[in-house]
Structure prediction request, 261 residues.
Amino acid sequence: MAAPLPITVEDLNIYYGDFLAVEDVNVQIMPRSVTALIGPSGCGKSTFLRTLNRMHEVIPGAYAKGKVQIDGEDIYDPRVDPVNVRRRVGMVFQKPNPFPTMSIRDNVLAGVKLNSSRISKAAADELMESSLRGANLWNEVKDRLDKPGLGLSGGQQQRLCIARTIAVKPEVVLMDEPCSALDPISTLAIEDLIHEMKQDYTIVIVTHNMQQASRVSDRTGFFNIAGTGKPGHLIEIDDTEKMFTNPANKQTEDYISGRFG
Ligand SMILES: Nc1ncnc2c1ncn2[C@@H]1O[C@H](COP(=O)(O)OP(=O)(O)OP(=O)(O)O)[C@@H](O)[C@H]1O
Ligand SMILES: [Mg+2]
Prediction:
């Protein structure tokens, strides 16, 4: 369950080899709330998101400098095991990515089985059901748990991936454009789910859809780049309502009013 402390990012610089992709981020991400990240393509939203669970560095040559404190612990401290960080901070991607050969049941438990091999059948069934309920998918799949995950619709597959993510009981859930491949009805289902999930998790979502950001988030952060090859910056972060009605920064105002990007 979500840590009670904010995620504190200090002096974070994010590189791909020599290329500084995102420069000098300082931000606090509030617990048990939804933070949306918006900004034009290439400004570093996905890059930043992946530094919050140490997924960035799996790309060859990629690294980050600075501090990211989760529940008071710097996840970049050399003593910290990145595998453990990725368990505490789950991630949902743009394109639903269920394991193609696995049943619905096995998809939900995939991360759990990797993490702790010894879990009883009864405990596994209970966890599977609660995760599917948590992802608002249980009623739609309870009669076909042994059928392939790929047999679900796109929106159902995305909720299956959310169930898989929450089955390992993370504190934080990162989502990178989780609805961009979905129809409007499935999108609303995911948005409702995000809204419910914030009671238990700290959620950070990247979205290109500003209506979505304003519907689903409590806080919104705006990233921007000055030009190609320049690093992205977090320009402004504030309460979502303020960001969309009365942002402090002119760049934010231009972006949200569609004058740019
Ligand atoms: N694997 C990579 N190797 C090298 N450079 C990369 C890699 N991934 C992203 N970049 C670069 O880092 C910068 C930020 O990219 P990123 O994907 O984070 O942007 P984004 O804001 O998520 O964009 P979009 O809205 O299009 O998804 C871009 O200049 C991009 O070309
Ligand atoms: Mg992206």
In short: The chain has a mean pLDDT of 94. The first strand starts at residue 7 and ends at 16. Residues 16, 21, 39, 41-47, 59 surround adenosine-5'-triphosphate (ligand 1) (CB under 6 Å).
